[in-house]
Design a protein that fits this description.
heterodimer, A: alpha+beta, Ubiquitin-like (UB roll), 2 domains, five-stranded mixed beta sheet, two-stranded antiparallel sheet, B: alpha/beta, Flavocytochrome C3, Chain A, domain 1, Methane Monooxygenase Hydroxylase, Chain G, domain 1, four-stranded antiparallel beta sheet, binds flavin-adenine dinucleotide, binds iron/sulfur cluster, binds FE2/S2 (inorganic) cluster
Chain lengths: 253, 579
């Protein structure tokens, strides 16, 4: 069929969910450092559309019910990595999970293993420090050509998955090893090491594998798989860790 | 943490433009550099850019910088400063290679070069046919740029102040001496004393209801500069991108049409054939968005309320969709429950990009009037700035190019200036205005809600000042803005806390957003012609005799003052814009 012909056969889905509403109960674990000595559960009853993001629901609470509710967000479509939360027991981005996927009861807590600063806001500094520890930048001291360095589509595909990371911390904060040992470098850092180790243009593998080999490095991983399930970018995190582990064994670390 | 800081160069904003500027400033061994950002750097909206960065590398078919410059000028409906477009089209080639050398994982051609694809308004031989100019990394080009530049800044050991909201610029005697910022974690004010300050704070799309822009994009520095006496250039030129997800505004890249996607009305007709017979669905955004509005208005919109259009990718090979457009495919599946491989996707135009902004010279110096008077030590780059590269309508892929070309220029210039300058004395009351602003908002009566006023602002801007404008609608909007302004005096804050008071920041942002809307509406009301993204139904033609000039709008007491400055012309005489 010519692309410019009318295509009667295609059934377009009418976005009906934009219209109906449902009643939901939202429980949020709250903590205000200026007022509370410990966290508590707050419950909100409201109506939402099945197509609403959990982020929309939280905005509704903040904007209409209680302005003091604190959380991070920016892009609202799963790209900036601001709003990882523990939602109905699973780490996810509040902007990437819809009410219809959760049912009428929604329980929201801060991601675990990082210090809670206020409500859903946690201290991200240690997470970023672990990321920085793996030297997450191109290491290649050879003078570059005038144009681009060449890389075949196959070489590029080798590390495609791990380039998708948005540093949301959903993986690291779902890891039981990280919960008990906050100094463990964590899956997100390993994912970002993988992104460079398997890039044909990079020459820093030895230095990165040294970091991986250190006391709080990759060997602590117990293959719990939580990280892979949590990743909102569908990165096969456990597989990436496994590939880095093999690179270490191969070099005899 | 100490609350008085001194850096030779302070960069405000950590998106593509800010990180590029910081990198280049940091390469000057004689200066110290800090970046202040209200979001963690990797949360910046540059990360949302999808389709690509335009540069005439010629990796797929022959291409030339000259053609790119011409397309930019024509796409900008001749309001583009032609010297800026010429410089840009050459420098962007180097800048793209440089990103590749920093490690940016571009998609590749079979022979290992940076992959390129077609995009709206990019042509060969001055308009003959579409050309592959957009260098891309699947539909995650902005993500890769942001990550690569942030990675580089770790390597360069740049100092960051994350989650610091700049509330004021310190401008004395025609010179900028730094900025005042609010630390979200503690609620404290900090003063950053600087020899050079670079503004790189991105766009202001949140003034509209349906937008591709992040919540954080509230035009803060466009407002702060304006409050400090700097005009805003060409704010009436605001781009609506044709393909936003219905009601949500989440963007589906133009790259989808570059790969062969087609727009259809409710009858299944490929209507762009009627509006742009030669390049059809790949016409520039202003033309496509208008065509979509007209289709809807004439009753050919789809859906129960006949208010959307379809983006049809169903004839494209599923493997190509998954490989080259994976993210937008996921957006359609998650947010609308529609699978682009087998179903047409409901879309509508979405508020996307500010062509206007803080006026600068070609060297990124901020200027304070139509005679190009430079504000000493103040630079601007990226979406917040107006050089003017994009004129009346930006071509797709030219913003990412703008960030890297002008971010780099700003970093180099600002560092060179700082290396040869002394710190100007800091006025002792530099925090007063910020403190008063915060105190007023904290103590406000709260008889009006920030969220309600913001929604009224966004809804009314969408209705009265978006794709089509008339004197009547704009005058109506002037009245609505006056009402909102009066009611903003009654907002307040429920949260009395100091730490992470995001409610207080939303209240501040509403005030900034308001100024952006005011700039746009008054400038649009004055301009009695149609050019690029500014489309007046009561003045349908472009008028080069009276209106081939840039707007400069100033805050003047409680009102505004509007002035104009000439467009820098060059090789290309204005011609009717036909595609
Ligand atoms: C969905 C989407 C897709 C796009 N796709 C493309 C594309 O394919 N090609 C293309 O060329 N262009 C594209 N664009 C446009 C382009 O991405 C943006 O114009 C560009 O990324 C803006 O970059 P920036 O560096 O100017 O600002 P941003 O990346 O928005 O960064 C702004 C920075 O300023 C900081 N900031 C803001 N206010 C303050 C304050 N008050 N105090 C302190 N810090 C502050 C923020 O924290 C942030 O770090 C797209 C845009 C969108 C929205
Ligand atoms: S690997 Fe996935 S879950 Fe982990 S930080 Fe990156 S995007 Fe988030
Ligand atoms: S708000 Fe950006 S990922 Fe959710």
């Amino acid at each position: 069929m010519e692309p410019n012909e009318a295509q009667e056969s295609i059934e377009a889905t009418e976005p009906n969910e934009l219209i109906e509403t449902v009643d939901i109960v939202v429980k949020i674990k709250r903590f205000d450092p200026d007022a509370d000595s410990r966290s508590y559960w707050a419950e909100y009853t409201l109506t939402a559309r099945p197509s609403d993001r959990v982020l929309d629901v939280m905005h509704h609470i903040k904007w209409e019910v209680d302005g003091s509710l604190a959380f991070r967000r920016s892009c609202a479509h799963g790209i900036c990595g601001s709003d990882a939360m523990l939602i109905n027991g699973v780490n996810r981005l509040a902007c990437k999970v819809l009410v219809k996927d959760l049912g009428s009861k929604i329980v929201i807590e801060p991601i675990r293993g990082l210090e809670v600063k206020k409500d859903l806001i946690v201290d991200m500094d240690s997470f970023f420090e672990s990321y920085k520890a793996v030297l997450p930048y191109m290491i290649n001291d050879e003078a570059p050509p005038a144009a681009e360095r060449l890389q075949s589509p196959e070489e590029r595909a080798r590390f495609d998955e791990t380039t998708k990371c948005i540093l949301c911390a959903a993986c690291t904060t779902s890891c039981p090893v990280f919960w008990t040992n906050g100094s463990y470098i964590g899956p997100a850092a390993i994912v970002n090491a993988h992104r460079f180790i398997f890039d044909s243009r990079d020459k820093g593998t030895a230095q990165r594998l040294d970091v991986m080999n250190a006391g709080n490095g990759l060997w602590r991983c117990r293959t719990a798989y939580n990280c892979t399930e949590a990743c909102p970018r569908d990165i096969p995190v456990t597989r990436a860790i496994e590939e880095v582990r093999r690179a270490m064994l191969f070099r005899g670390a | 943490m100490k609350r008085a800081h001194r850096f030779d160069v302070v960069v405000i904003g950590a998106g593509g433009a800010g990180l590029m500027a910081a990198r280049y400033a940091a390469q000057n061994p004689n200066v110290s550099v800090a970046v202040i950002t209200k979001l963690y750097p990797t949360r910046s909206h540059t990360g949302a850019a999808q389709g690509g960065v335009g540069a005439a590398l010629g990796n797929v078919t022959e291409d030339r910088a000259e053609w790119h410059a011409f397309d930019t000028i024509k796409g900008g409906d001749y309001l583009t400063d032609q010297d800026v477009a010429e410089l840009f089209s050459h420098e962007v080639i180097e800048a793209v290679y440089e990103l590749e050398h920093m490690g940016l994982p571009f998609s590749r051609t079979p022979d290992g070069r940076i992959a390129q694809r077609k995009f709206g308004g990019h042509t060969r031989e001055f308009g003959k046919s579409a050309v592959e100019r957009a260098c891309y990394a699947a539909d995650r080009t902005g993500h890769m740029i942001l990550q690569t530049l942030y990675q580089q800044s770790i390597k360069d050991d740049v100092a960051f102040f994350n989650e610091f909201y700049v509330l004021d610029l310190i401008i004395e005697g025609g010179e900028c001496r730094g900025a005042v910022a609010f630390e979200l974690a503690t609620g404290e004010l900090h003063t950053f004393h600087a020899k050079s300050t670079i503004i790189a704070t991105g766009g202001n799309g949140r003034m509209f209801k349906v937008t591709s822009n992040a919540h954080a994009l509230t035009g803060d520095l466009m407002s702060i500069a304006y409050r400090r006496g700097i005009p805003i250039e060409d704010p009436e030129f605001y781009q609506f991108h044709p393909t936003g997800l219905y009601k949500l505004g989440v963007l589906l890249t133009e790259g989808a049409r570059g790969e062969g996607g087609i727009l259809r009305n409710a009858d299944g007709e490929r209507f762009m054939e009627r509006y742009a017979p030669s390049i059809k669905d790949l016409a520039p955004r202003d033309m496509v968005s208008r065509a979509m509005y007209l289709e809807i208005r004439e009753g050919r919109g789809a859906g129960p309320e006949k208010d959307y259009i379809y983006l049809d990718l169903t004839h494209i090979d599923a493997a190509i969709i998954e490989e080259r457009l994976p993210d937008i495919t996921e957006f359609a599946r998650i947010y609308l429950g529609v699978d682009p491989v087998t179903e047409m996707v409901p879309i509508q135009p979405t508020a996307h990009y500010a062509m206007g902004g803080i006026p600068t010279t070609i060297d990124t110096n901020v200027i304070s009037d139509g005679r190009n008077t430079i504000v000493g030590g103040l630079y601007a780059a990226g979406e917040v700035a107006c050089a003017s590269l994009h004129g009346a309508n930006r071509l797709g892929t030219n913003s990412l190019g703008d960030l890297i070309v002008f971010g780099r220029r700003a970093g180099i210039r600002a560092a060179a200036h700082a290396a040869g300058a002394e710190y100007g004395p800091l006025p002792s009351d530099n925090q007063d205005a910020s403190r008063e602003l915060l105190e007023r908002l904290r103590a406000g009566p709260r008889t009006e809600r920030v969220a309600h006023l913001r929604r009224e602002l966004q809804d009314s801007m969408q209705d009265n000042a978006s794709v089509f404008r008339t004197q009547e609608l704009l005058e109506k909007q002037v009245g609505i803005l006056a009402d909102i302004k009066a009611r903003m005096l009654h907002i307040g804050c429920e949260d009395p806390g100091q730490q992470y008071n995001t409610e207080l920041m939303e209240a501040v942002e509403l005030g900034f957003l308001y100024d952006n809307a005011e700039q746009l509406v008054f400038a649009a009301l004055n301009r009695t012609e149609s050019r690029g993204a500014h489309s007046r139904e009561d003045h349908r033609e472009r008028d080069d005799t009276d209106w081939l000039k840039h707007t400069l709008i100033y805050k003047d007491g409680d009102g505004v003052r509007i002035d104009y400055k000439p467009v820098t012309m060059g090789k290309y005489e204005p011609k009717p814009r036909i595609y």
